[in-house]
Design a protein that fits this description.
The complex is a heterodimer of chains A (about 525) and B (about 210). With about 525 residues, chain A is mostly helical. Chain A is about 65% helix and about 0% strand. Chain A has a single domain, classed as Cytochrome c oxidase-like, subunit I domain (Cytochrome C Oxidase, Chain A, Up-down Bundle). The radius of gyration of chain A is 22 Å and the shape is globular. The two termini of chain A are about 30 Å apart. Chain B folds into two domains: about 40 residues; about 130 residues, Ctag/Cox11 (Ctag/Cox11 (Pfam 04442), Sandwich). Chain B starts with 12 loop residues before the first helix and ends with a helix. Classes of the chains: A mainly alpha (about 525), B alpha+beta (about 210). Chains A and B meet through helix 5, helix 6 and helix 7 of A and helix 1 and strand 9 of B.
Chain lengths: ~525, ~210
């Protein structure tokens, strides 16, 4: 009974309630979505390689920008973090599994259907969603293609999946910790996920409400967002960004947790300022609820509103600064080595800070009137999402993969992948700052001639970055199939309960809770 | 803080059910909060006078005192929403009024289509902070407008600029956007209209 292993065949994956199996499925699913969203991005960059219309129709270009955003946010980043949570949280807190294993199975298995529905719209008459990932009304209601209803239900399913995943994570963390594991002894990845899960259950229902209102406007004659019937299109933006701003922290807080685990290991020092990290995370989560209108400075807010949202947004730099300070201080005078996870983590700290600073520029309301809807915004959020969220996920994969599959990855290949990605992403996104400041609007298939050089550079970087991720896939598969045997500790005295179990981690771990000092 | 107590998986059962009930309650609550944002938004705009929204029912003036020492320019703008084919314009584009004085003007509309159409005008006042001081005692925007094919109408607007209008405001712009709401009408409204067109317009537009 104690050592009964996984079932055989496809049934193992379909019926599994094992947190490691479900974590694996989440991670593979998100990787597939990452590649698909990446292909959409490359269609965009190929079209923008030179001015004029070359490869795709503007209508299809709009579908690509929309689908790239939706797939990357809801299909790649969020499921990857949920996958990591599934694999790691029970092992980090000394629990045998998640608190609600059957719901766990369900919250994963509805996701492929949601994305099958969303992707199928590309083949429908009128095409897929073409109104941008923020789907502002009335573009997404009055002027939407008929497939918008599929989009709405896909968002409902993704939301249900996230909400169930979050409830499961909260229940696991609050109820399943090993004896002695007090809240303030939890690893930061667990802490950041606990806070993220609360954000998710607070805002995913608002998103569900938002798309439900769209559905009613489109099919049932209501006028939530239609001015003709007494509604207000600006209301849409308020409701959307009330979800949307906490959402961006949902995509970055778990990354903070990952980096806070990796840096101490390779600096060979305990994390500096553990408690301040916890409080900083909680502050960021709280502030995320009162800054949403900084996405809409140009809708015509009164000056008091502009000032409130401007100062509240700038306030977020304080807890974020605390975090960056703590990471740097952890590395300060440490015996640092630069294995692949550490390279990704250091790149995270530096490049995420760049994205944070451009965010501060955007927070300045009067300046935002110039930056609004330009490529500067695109550069900003790609700097926080690609070297932020995506790099942290890759760092996590390199860091914990030996624990998951029992084999070490090839360090040379890992470093090559890091440098290709690092160069590729900077070549892609750094020039976007310049064209944005010079006035190039986002979400257009054609542009003025003076932007041609920087766009060409960005497109070349994008293809480099994109194909490096195929290389990443190769490295991961190679590691799973073989390679040097990893020790149980994997790294040199890393912190955490997950390193006390064998490598590869047995199918069932901590069936009797470990003692935590 | 009950959760400060570390609990093992064995003692977790009872706590778990209560926790999940609470979390589900948060989810349901936040779903409805999303809808509650709609009235909250309107309320917020009402209280603060943001968004340039004016009164949507007739205003009854309390006094008839007119502040003749002051002049305020009122501009009128008429816009068709996308796809709306009507001819729509103010009779007078600009007026100089005294605060407290009741003014009447009209807007002209013509339906050039070969079918009966219904329109709704949506007003907005700029600057937004003047909206609370712009009172309409009668407005064609309070009702929908029905016009038969080729029909025309002069639509009345009566308003009072409040005497308490901040002195920093010297010009108020009243903008109307005309929306086509024909598709939202029940069939009998449109067919009845073609029979007794004249009388219907008189009842719809006071």
């Amino acid at each position: 009974m104690g050592d009964h292993g996984p079932a055989k065949g496809f049934g193992r994956w379909l019926y599994t309630t094992n947190h490691k199996d479900i974590g694996t499925m989440y991670l593979w699913f998100s990787f597939a979505m990452f590649l698909m969203g990446g292909v959409f991005a490359l269609v965009i960059r190929a079209e923008l390689f030179q001015p004029g219309l070359q490869l795709v129709e503007p209508e299809f270009f709009n579908q690509m920008t929309t689908m790239h955003g939706l797939v990357m946010v809801f299909g790649a980043v969020m499921p990857a973090f949920v996958g990591l949570a599934n694999w790691l949280i029970p092992m980090m807190i000394g629990a045998p599994d998640m608190a609600l294993p059957r719901m766990n199975n369900w919250s994963f298995w509805i996701l492929p259907f949601a994305f099958a529905m969303l992707t199928s719209t590309l083949f429908m008459e009128g095409g897929g969603p073409n109104f941008g990932w923020t789907f502002y009304a009335p573009l997404s209601t009055t002027y939407a293609p008929p497939s918008v209803t599929y989009f709405i239900f896909a968002v409902h399913i993704m939301g249900a999946s996230s909400i169930m995943g979050s409830i499961n994570i909260i229940a696991t963390i609050l109820n399943m910790r090993a004896p002695g594991m007090t809240l303030m002894k939890m690893p930061l990845f667990v802490w950041t996920w606990l806070i993220t899960a609360y954000l998710l259950i607070a805002v995913m229902p608002v998103l569900a409400g938002c798309v439900t209102m769209m559905l009613m406007d489109i099919h049932f004659g209501t006028s939530f967002f239609s001015a003709a019937g007494g509604g207000d299109p600006v209301l849409f933006q308020h409701v959307f960004w009330f979800f949307g701003h906490p959402e961006v922290y949902i995509m970055i807080l778990p990354a903070f947790g990952i980096v806070s685990a990796i840096i101490p290991t390779f600096a060979r020092k305990p994390l500096f300022g553990y408690a301040s990290m916890v409080y900083a995370t909680a502050s960021i989560a709280f502030l995320s609820f009162i800054v949403w209108a900084h996405h809409m400075f140009t809708v015509g807010m009164p000056i008091a509103g502009e000032l409130f949202f401007m100062y509240a947004t700038m306030l977020i730099a304080v807890p974020t600064g605390v975090k960056v300070f703590n990471w740097v201080t952890t590395m300060f005078r440490g015996s640092m080595t630069f294995e692949t996870p550490m390279l990704f983590a250091i790149a995270f700290v530096i490049l995420f800070s760049i994205g944070g600073f451009s965010g501060l520029m955007l927070a300045i309301a009067p300046a935002d009137f110039q930056y609004h809807d330009t490529y500067f915004v695109v550069a900003h959020f790609h700097y926080v999402l690609v070297p932020g969220a995506i790099f942290s996920i890759m760092a996590a994969v390199y860091y914990w993969l030996p624990k998951w599959c029992g084999n070490m990855y090839d360090e040379r290949l890992g470093k090559a992948h890091f440098w290709l990605s690092f160069i590729g992403l900077n070549v892609t996104f750094f020039p976007m700052h310049f064209v944005g400041l010079a006035g190039m609007p986002r979400r257009i298939p054609d542009y003025a001639l003076q932007f041609a050089d920087f766009n060409q550079i960005a497109s070349m970087g994008a293809f480099l970055f994109g194909f490096s991720q195929v290389f990443f896939l190769f490295i991961v598969i190679k590691t799973i199939r073989g390679g040097a045997q990893a020790t149980d500790e994997v790294w040199e005295s890393p912190e955490g309960l997950e390193w006390t179990v064998a490598s590869p981690a047995p199918y069932h771990t901590f069936t009797t809770p470990p003692a935590v000092k | 803080m009950q959760h400060e107590q570390p609990t093992g998986p064995l003692s977790a059962k009872i706590d778990l059910r209560r926790l999940i009930t609470r979390l589900v309650a948060v989810v349901v609550g936040m779903f409805f909060f999303g809808f509650a944002l709609v009235p909250l938004y309107d309320l917020f705009c009402d209280v603060t006078g943001l968004n340039g929204k004016t009164n949507s029912t007739a205003f009854i003036p309390a006094t008839e005192l007119v502040d003749t020492s002051r002049n305020v320019t009122v501009q009128f703008v008429a816009t068709n929403n996308e796809g709306m084919p009507w001819e729509f314009r103010p009779e007078i584009f600009k007026l100089s009024v005294h605060p407290g004085e009741e003014i009447e003007t009209t807007f002209f509309a013509r339906n050039p289509q070969r079918m009966t159409m219904v329109a709704q005008a949506i007003p907005s006042v700029s600057p937004g902070r003047a909206a609370a001081y712009f009172h309409k005692t009668e407005c064609f925007c309070f009702n929908q407008q029905l016009l038969e094919a080729g029909g025309t109408v002069d639509m009345p607007l009566r308003f009072i600029v409040d005497r308490d209008l901040p002195t920093s405001v010297n010009t108020i712009t009243l903008s109307y956007t005309l929306f086509d709401v024909t598709a939202d009408q029940p069939e009998q409204v449109l067919s009845a209209a073609s029979v007794s067109m004249a009388s219907y317009v008189n009842t719809v537009t006071p």
